[in-house]
Amino acid sequence: MEDKELFLALLNTPSITPQDGGLLAFAEDYLPDFTAKRVDIDGVKNLFLYKKFGEGVHLCFAGHVDVVPPGEGWESDPFEPVEKEGFIYARGAQDMKSGVCAILQTCKTVTHFNGTLSILLTSDEEGDAKNGTVKVLEILKNENFLPDFAIVAEPTCFRNFGDTIKIGRRGSINGKIEIKGVQGHAAYPQNAKNPIHQIASILPKVAEHKFDEGNDIFEPSTLVLTDIKAGEGVTNVTPKNLTLMFNIRNSPLTKIEDVERYLRSIFGLLYMVNNPGKGKLDFDLELQESAKSFMTDRSSILIAHLSRAVEDVTGLVPELSAAGGTSDARFFAEFGVNVAEFGVLNDTIHAANERCHISHLYDLIKVYRELLKKF
Ligand SMILES: [Zn+2]
After folding, report:
1. Distance of CA 241 from the midpoint of ligand 1 (Å)
2. 60 CB contacts (<8 Å, ≥6 apart)?
């Protein structure tokens, strides 16, 4: 199939997460020279394809065929791609059937590669991502067949095609602190332990606290307070308990242990220093890491080759970035695989009238072909 014909065929197939719309079977048939492994768990379909071309490295292209529901406000049918002024409009045009199309075309036409090429496709990225990429990587690990390098074909570019490669992501830590006091009458504060007053002197050390200064890739890891609750909604009773909730989007420079150590020092030691003779603050701290941060070493050969391939095709030197929400790249990083993400623009992802310029698809295929030559 021609590049555009394949792209339109992928877009023409509804595959709302965790449905694959038959696209994984299609991909398997499209690349008959590759050995296929299917991993289906609880209605989630995954496909791993591989072919050994030579003795060198194992490079994996990864992506998802599922898309988010179309939602309201479309000017055309989201699963009937329409071409207008060079743009193709359809759900998944950017996120990420352009990437899937580029992966398939690159692997369809490759004749030489100094190593093993593989493709990991899932239908569970836009959902809860529990039975997708991570499960396939577990199997590959057990079979001693984890790739050395992975390219996730998510849309990464910001303004111009070629302007951004993603090499990491911030993590997310959620937290809750409960201060336990003693309820009382506002007229007799000496008989109560008012948790609002207790945290008053230490709150400035928590609000917007920066755990690190960041670097050229990451913003500082900053604590953001999201909720404070205490009291009965009256003016004559001081509350018994106070609950503080917060979130930290953290870089790899700050770990969950660092957060715990800091908060225990503030609510433990600093409270006592600020409030001599009042004893210890009675508090419970809960922390939960909902996403782990990661960053691929920027001196990695993968980043060097990919940056050069982008520059060769577009003339732009791509910026290395860790911005945006999570993607399956984090799973590759967890398994110790050198991973980077590069794809088309992401300015209309998950929105109504999602679109991708057809020239960006052609250029993405060129970038992947250049990349393969560099290994
Ligand atoms: Zn995506």
Report:
1. 42
2. 117, 118, 119, 120, 147, 149, 150, 151, 332, 337
